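Long-time lurker, finally posting.

We've been working with GTP-binding protein 10 (Trichonephila clavata) and I want a structural starting point before designing mutants. I don't trust myself to interpret raw outputs, so I'm hoping someone here can both generate the structure tokens and explain anything notable. Sequence follows.
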Amino acid sequence: YPNAGKSTLLSALSNAKPKIANYPFTTIAPNIGMLCYDDFRKISAADLPGLIEGAHMNYGMGHKFLKHCVRTKILLFVVDIDGFRLNPNTPHRTAFETIMLLNRELELYDEELVLKPAILVVNKIDMDENKQKFQKLKEGMKQSESKVKELPDEIRPNYLIKFDAIVSISAKEHINISTLKQKIRKIIDIYQEQDVTHYLEDTTQRKDIDVIYV
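Top reply, 14 upvotes:
Generated this for you. Predicted structure of GTP-binding protein 10:
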């Protein structure tokens, strides 16, 4: 979602220098960065403009950005621990609701996207109160199959993404950035070795992005 700190995270993880500001829709086109490791391994990453409700119907140019998710190897869901509100005329969405909305938008655009490897990145946990909120969110995610039934139809996905990891960070303060960087590599390597899904195949004919931030 907009203003979740995706551009700040890309800058912290890679060599990219995207435009960063404290207002929604700072990112209006995908930013590309390269995650570099000590053994010279490189993983490409793209920060997409924030998706909004209705992105699957091309609201906010959703199709233009969602198409990039199809060829990526792993999805990073980046959410603000305090949730998101698009404008005064729209409801505030909690972090849990934001995750479910992103899940639903991907599902409605292309059902196969919810089967991709995914990491949930919860940003802005540098304050003690937000660390407590993160623990509560983690518990909620463990019970997501029951909790999602309480959500209204317009934000409830039919198939829940099974996150390979849930990581709390502060992109601004560089908290847990190294941990996340290693987690990204580990999960990509595991799925490449297992070759469990068709979207990891046929990578020799085109240059795909390894990681997409949504």
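Before you design anything, note these points.
Confidence is low (pLDDT under 50) at residues 18-28, 52-63, 203-207.
The helical segments are 6-13, 62-66, 95-109, 128-142, 144-147, 177-194.
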